[in-house]
Amino acid sequence: MKLLQSAVAGLLILAAAGAAHAGQTLDAVRKKGFVQCGVSTGVAGFSNPDSKGVWTGIDVDLCKAVAATVFGDAAKFKLTPLNTQQRFTALQSGEVDVLPRNTTVTLSRDAGLGLSGAGVNFYDGQGIMVPKKLGVKSARELNGATFCLQPGTTTELNLADWFRAAKLNFKPVVIDKFDELVRAFAAGRCDAYTTDASALSMMRATMLPNPDDWVILPERLSKEPLGPLVRKGDDQWLDIVKWTLNAMIEAEEYGITSKNVDQMLKSANPNVQRILGVTPGGGKSLGVDEKWVYNIVKQVGNYGESFDRNLGQGSPMKMARGANALWTQGGLMYALPIR
């Protein structure tokens, strides 16, 4: 009996400790009045400033959506540009609240750095780009080639693994800053450039002279599921970021857009009623307003709207949805149900 009482007492202590810890990030975010998001130093379509210093991209939209969830106001956010070597330390130290920074979620990051992945907002894969004049049709023709690389990324590790498995060699040219690395590639300092295929498409379309002079080879060296990361130990904050992303995807599935969301409040569909908070419960579970999804969609848009204006046909990138289409349209975007 004493053993049982001790065990129960121990469980109660653990539960109390968990309850005290829960909500720590949300409380801090509300106290300062904005969400601090870590983003790239400039990757078009994901997080990039224009000539006036206004940042756009799907990662910026996700940051805005988290602000809409927490405050009901998508404008209550601030961005911290971080390079590849700064990003995890900034999140671990509390400098940023969430890291929606075109970052691949891996086991070592999710389990080894004290961080948790909160979903995937872009499915990608590592590719290789070369100058057309090189006459290369496959990565297997690049034995001994020099590669432009950023340090501290999965890109370098994936390239090493792939070349080792293919019994080929390469020489790295490592430069930290993305813009400098692209200029080095354009100037011919490297034979090839490797990074996520989406970034290669962006580079070819917007950063390199004459897009037709560059070829993205057919091989994909890896899976690169990109998504937001948060610190481990605060389940409520993880839930808020995770369900914010799910809400954007779920809204697209049900055809709820920034243009029709007011009209959709009158929908008789019980799923739509739950999503938009007409039927309450979801907001209470997260510790936010019941209109949290309405605020996201009204102020930021659903996932499809965000993709289109930043990466798709409404953007200079003109990127096909591909794996990032909804599951009902042959893609991988499948939202967990809000119910």
Q: What does this 3D model show about the protein?
A:
This protein is an alpha/beta fold. It is built from 14 helices and 13 strands. The protein has helices at 2-21, 24-32, 58-71, 87-93, 107-112, 154-165, 178-186, 197-206, 235-253, 261-264, 270-275, 282-286, 292-299, 303-310; strands spanning 35-39, 48-49, 55-56, 77-81, 115-117, 122-124, 126-131, 145-149, 170-174, 192-196, 214-216, 224-226, 229-231. Strands 9-8-10-7-11 form a five-stranded mixed sheet, sandwiched between helices. It has a two-stranded parallel ribbon with strand order 1-4. A two-stranded antiparallel ribbon has the order 2-3. β2 (48-49) and β3 form a beta hairpin. α3 (58-71) packs across α9 (235-253) and α3 (58-71) runs antiparallel to α13. Pfam families: SBP_bac_3. InterPro entries: Bact_solute-bind_prot3 (IPR051455), SBP_3_CS (IPR018313), Solute-binding_3/MltF_N (IPR001638).
Keywords:
339 residues; alpha/beta; five-stranded mixed beta sheet; two-stranded parallel sheet; 15% strand; globular; disordered N terminus
Instruction: Encode the helix/strand succession as letters.
Output: HHEEEHEHHEEEEHEHEHEEEHHHHHH
The spatial strand order of the largest sheet comes to 9-8-10-7-11
**What's the Cα radius of gyration?**
22 Å
Distance from N terminus to C terminus (CA atoms, Å) equals: 41 Å
Determine the strand fraction and express it as a percent band. 5-15%
Helix content: 40-55%
Q: Report the structural category.
A: alpha/beta
Give the number of DSSP strands.
13
Please give the count of helices. Answer: 14
Largest sheet: 5 strands, mixed
General form: globular
Low-confidence stretches: 1-22
Estimate the mean pLDDT confidence.
92
